[in-house]
Amino acid sequence: MALPRSIFRYLFIILATISRPPEEALQETLRIAEVNKEDNYRLSLVCLLSALYWRIGKKEYTYEHLDELVELATSGKYLVDYTQNMTEIIELLGEMKEYERIKQVISSYDEYVKRQDSIYLYINAAEFWLSYYEMIGDFEKYQEYAAKVEAALKDNGVRCSVDNRSEKIGY
């Protein structure tokens, strides 16, 4: 018997509250999803597991599943919680200094944004690109992209301006 989709959102919480380490609860949730042929949350679960293992120092798991994580993120198939997943994946890849993979993931998100035609998603994509340029230290590209976003937003009736002063606050 297949479980309803909504159950997977809460399954991890239930498993985590019965005295299990979080990584075991997530692994069990992923296993149950696979048994029930429920694939919608695969990206979310692999993302959570990879980030958890990375942050508790079991980095080999994350490296072993890195190709799968990027493949899931760029497949366009796993759209449940997609923007949140992409945010977490980009943050994790940034911690790992996997800059080319970040670029690949953001490019894939851009394609998704073009199909959705949403200003909200466009702004998220812009934040991802600006974060990427900041991570790699390319402040020229950062400013160019910020100006491009400003122009696009103004073309859509959004009042905005780019502050491209080089001062740092609090120093």
Describe this protein's structure:
- Helix content is 71%, strand content 0%.
- It contains nine helices and no strands.
- Helix 2 packs antiparallel against helix 3, helix 6 runs parallel beside helix 8 and helix 7 packs antiparallel against helix 8.
- It is globular, with a radius of gyration of 19 Å.
TL;DR of this structure?
With 171 residues, this protein is mostly helical. It is 71% helix and 0% strand.
- The low-pLDDT segments are 1-6
What is the count of DSSP helices, taking H or I runs of 4+ residues? 9
How many strands appear in the DSSP assignment?
Answer: 0
Outline the biggest β-sheet: none
* Terminal Cα span: 60 Å
Structural class: mainly alpha
**Which H/E pattern describes the elements?**
HHHHHHHHH
What spatial form do the alpha-carbon principal axes imply?
Answer: globular
Oligomer designation: single chain
**Fraction of residues in helix:** over 70%
Query: How big a fraction of the residues is strand?
Result: under 5%
Radius of gyration: 19 Å
Mean pLDDT: 84
